[in-house]
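#struct-help
A.M.: can someone run this one for me? Single chain, 153 residues.
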Amino acid sequence: MDDDAGSQDWADLADLLLTLAREIQGPGYRDRRIVPLTSAEAAVMRFVDRNPGSTLGEVASATGFQRSNLSTLVSSLAGRGLVEKRGGSADGRVIELHPTREAGENLARLRAEWTDLLADAAQRSQISSTTDETIELLGRLLEGVASRRRDSR
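D.P.: on it. Structure tokens below:
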């Protein structure tokens, strides 16, 4: 892509998204019951929550993590009661990952905190438009970025 004004707009958008993500994650949560996750752990949990029964290979492919690193992440999540490993094949060699009830409760608390934060931020910033189009746009951008990452392997 040429280094024109449009290119700068995309770079500015990326910078804003990264900064917004850091602000949303912040130094901590108001709800002390929320189990904090690293960005890598959150990526694994996000995929497992949306794709229960996924194998380590599927999670590795979707997140871009090496299997050895992923195994460490999954062990950490399982140790905190957020992921359950189950034998997925007759001989037990294939391990499926499932979110636990505790993971669901943690996600619900986290989403409630995000909702409160962003609703308040929108009010303070006098943003009154619907979020549907924004969510669709960002979701499509995410899929495009993920597709490019998968294609470059």
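A.M.: thanks! Strands lie at 54-55, 83-87, 95-99.
D.P.: also worth noting: Residues 101-124 form the longest helix (24 residues).
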